[in-house]
């Protein structure tokens, strides 16, 4: 096991490049299973979650060749319709292969997936959608199985704009007969990126980025080349890191409009934000005003940035109210921040954060991916050293985080635990 040692008090200055989006890469890799013609994917980040998805694809029969940040995939030999229970339980996004396998082979069997313990993320919306497309669903002994001789287009209304369900149903519908309409679809930029990839394969998908997506089924798909969009959550984390350290940081390889809600809150808190075509510059004097935030589906404030913004609020003037409306168990970082001197009270899905003058370094534990990123930010401004355990969570979603921050002047080291 490895840990980070962070010594706070250094202003971050310079330029930092954002990697390809984890949450866009995972569905794109899964969607490659729809064709046996091959795919070339660029800007693939080197992350633990991506490694797990690659293992899933190889288990199914994919041949994968790594070329720097690009992956060449040959799925002509894929024949398995069952995903390893071990792999499914290691990462929730493994369930994204279900739609492509069902569409291509008419059969898929998988264990219920795992991932971060941040709250309930049931599979029911995925399965109801598969059933609407004509699949027969069987659930028993911790496994789910879907079978269909021929998927047929249908109108599907999601009870909640689930990103995973939207992606899985888009992929399943690509090879279905007739038209599929997904209503109350998720609007995230990663959905748009998946649409672009599917269409490059020869699919007929339109409407991504709105709450209604329409898919005209096609008979077969072709080879494709695709570049993954930048990771907006990584970019948001870097912006908060630059602001909270009273630094001046240019975040490169970004799509600024993907970060509108985050930029608005940072400006409201007192940070200076300048925008370019593919960059964002943040600067601050280290003095912040408390702001209230409620997480919402895109284009609202992202739940994946809630923990990082909370760290900023721990040193802001006044009291902020942070409401988590997406996941019911996403305040695990609060106890760790309290250990560092933060004044935070939890009432249900609401955190009441009273700003304090400083945080103090201590031993803390990353309980999930974004909680881990938040602790790194806290360590950057804490007095003395902060030791962050279980950083494998952070490695799931941030590529070379300690190297990127060290290049900006941070004092952060990765060491092996004794």
UniProtKB/TrEMBL annotation:
The modification 2-(S-cysteinyl)pyruvic acid O-phosphothioketal is found at residue 116. It catalyses: phosphoenolpyruvate + UDP-N-acetyl-alpha-D-glucosamine = UDP-N-acetyl-3-O-(1-carboxyvinyl)-alpha-D-glucosamine + phosphate. Its EC number is 2.5.1.7. One of its GO terms (biological process) is cell wall organization. The keyword Cytoplasm applies. Keywords: Cell cycle, Cell division, Cell shape, Cell wall biogenesis/degradation, Cytoplasm, Peptidoglycan synthesis, Pyruvate, Transferase. It comes from the Bacteria. PANTHER family: UDP-N-ACETYLGLUCOSAMINE 1-CARBOXYVINYLTRANSFERASE. This is UDP-N-acetylglucosamine 1-carboxyvinyltransferase. The gene is murA.
């Amino acid at each position: 096991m490895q840990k980070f040692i962070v010594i706070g008090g250094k202003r971050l200055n310079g330029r930092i490049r954002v990697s390809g989006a984890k949450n866009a890469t995972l569905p794109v890799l899964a969607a490659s299973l729809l064709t046996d013609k091959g795919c070339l994917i660029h800007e693939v980040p080197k992350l633990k979650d991506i490694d797990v998805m690659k293992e899933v694809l190889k288990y199914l029969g994919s041949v994968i060749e790594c070329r720097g940040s690009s992956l060449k995939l040959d799925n002509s030999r894929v024949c398995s319709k069952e995903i390893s229970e071990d792999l499914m339980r290691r990462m929730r996004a493994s369930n994204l292969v279900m739609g492509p396998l069902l569409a291509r082979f008419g059969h898929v069997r998988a264990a219920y997936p795992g991932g971060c313990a941040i709250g309930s993320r049931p599979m029911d919306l995925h399965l109801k959608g598969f059933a609407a497309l004509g699949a027969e669903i069987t659930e028993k002994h911790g496994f789910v199985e879907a079978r269909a001789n021929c998927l047929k287009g249908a109108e599907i209304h999601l009870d909640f704009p689930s990103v995973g369900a939207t992606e899985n149903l888009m992929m399943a519908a690509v090879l279905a007969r007739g038209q599929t309409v997904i209503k109350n679809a998720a609007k995230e930029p990663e959905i748009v990126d998946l649409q672009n990839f599917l269409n490059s394969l020869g699919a007929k998908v339109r409407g991504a980025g709105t709450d209604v997506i329409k898919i005209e089924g096609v008979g077969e798909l072709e080879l494709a080349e695709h570049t993954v969009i930048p990771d907006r959550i990584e970019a948001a984390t870097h912006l908060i890191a630059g602001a909270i350290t009273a630094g001046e940081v240019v975040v490169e390889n970004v799509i600024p409009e993907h970060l509108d809600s985050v930029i608005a809150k940072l400006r409201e808190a007192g940070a200076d934000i300048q925008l370019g075509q593919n960059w964002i510059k943040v600067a601050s004097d280290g003095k912040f005003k408390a702001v209230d935030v409620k997480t919402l589906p895109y284009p609202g404030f992202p739940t994946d940035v809630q923990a990082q913004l909370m760290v900023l609020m721990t040193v802001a003037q006044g009291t902020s109210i942070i409401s988590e409306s997406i996941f019911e168990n996403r305040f695990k970082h609060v106890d760790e921040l309290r250990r560092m001197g933060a004044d935070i009270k939890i009432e249900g899905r609401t955190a009441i954060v009273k700003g304090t003058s400083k945080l103090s370094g201590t031993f803390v534990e990353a309980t999930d991916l974004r909680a881990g990123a938040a602790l790194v930010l806290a360590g950057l401004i804490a007095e003395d050293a902060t030791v962050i355990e279980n950083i494998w969570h952070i490695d799931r979603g941030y590529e070379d985080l300690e190297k990127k921050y060290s290049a900006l002047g941070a004092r952060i080291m990765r060491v092996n635990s004794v």
